[in-house]
């Protein structure tokens, strides 16, 4: 196939049954988020470049290396969104939306990284943002929401890593300590970490270089140098998580890759994912709204990766994949009857199909299987005379006769409805 007809590197196609799984993941997320009082916000997929430089940080990997930035025909600098938070905060302020508010979003993000398993250039994030709630109970609600989402999708080998990276009061002291430590090891650090040392030393904790990691193993940890207030808040978050039976691991070296976080930071990981083991992450960003020119309003949120969630989920069962019925007609003269039944099923919201082209019954059953139907409802002369249909379950192979009055309900129970 010529390059013109293959998808760009790092992008993906979702065909059935993956497209169905993707939708199911989104539906579970929406339901849990709405249950917790979040409402959907829909924001553009591209924004002014400056928005991300100002918020995600001009030293973050995302901003320096991974953004899809371009000039439009009028010479404006635009960027395909690499993440959701800055756009959500901008939208709330620009539209003067009331705060406190709880908002969620679901949609594609773009990062020009090196594609590998679980890392794409176009991927989907499911995220929540709470603007205007300062209580550590909110931190716990947000952390739990992500955990419930992964639990509901059957991801049992998940872990939560938790840390606090301090606030405006304690971070400068910590930063100075870290810089003086790293400066003493300057020659052992990679080129990038030497730059980080000047501009954003905490980011060195995210470096993958083995030499840097061994230096950092001895470095003062961000979570170990908190002021009493940050300490106290972290303690409350931990107590509340424990009280609610949410298991987590304290990781005093967890720093998130974006500039705007403070205090509580967390990440969900799964052992099923390999090198890219982060399912999602988030944290507090109590200064971001203010930095965008808004009032001094605290914030907290997370972004979960949809593709990595799908990779970590157990494989779907045939029952989950097969969500439609197939009407089979045994002879030409029965086509009208078959179409009537098809209509009854569809009117009841039961997804149903028929093969108009196949004259042979065997081919109709084959079409049903190719279409991943759950069952076939057979319309035959003998059955019609008795006022029944044969219902064949394509998963169990079981075949029964069902009366005309009951057939729609029976099929509905097998395949579900779309309305
Ligand atoms: P981040 O805020 O960068 O930690 O991203 C949050 C989540 O989005 C990650 O934990 C991943 O699940 C997902 N994610 C980030 N970048 C990518 C990518 N390039 N491809 C697929 N998923 C990604």
| Spans of at least 5 consecutive residues with low confidence | none
Mean pLDDT: 94
Number of strands: 16
> Biggest sheet: strands, sense, closure?
8 strands, mixed
Measured between the Cα atoms of the first and last residue, the distance is 40 Å
Cofactors and ligands present?
adenosine monophosphate
Q: Structural class of the secondary structure composition?
A: alpha+beta
Rg from alpha-carbon coordinates: 27 Å
Number of helices: 16
Q: Please indicate the percent range of residues in DSSP E strands (runs of 2 or more).
A: 15-25%
Strand line-up across the major sheet: 1-5-6-11-10-9-7-8
Q: State the shape.
A: elongated
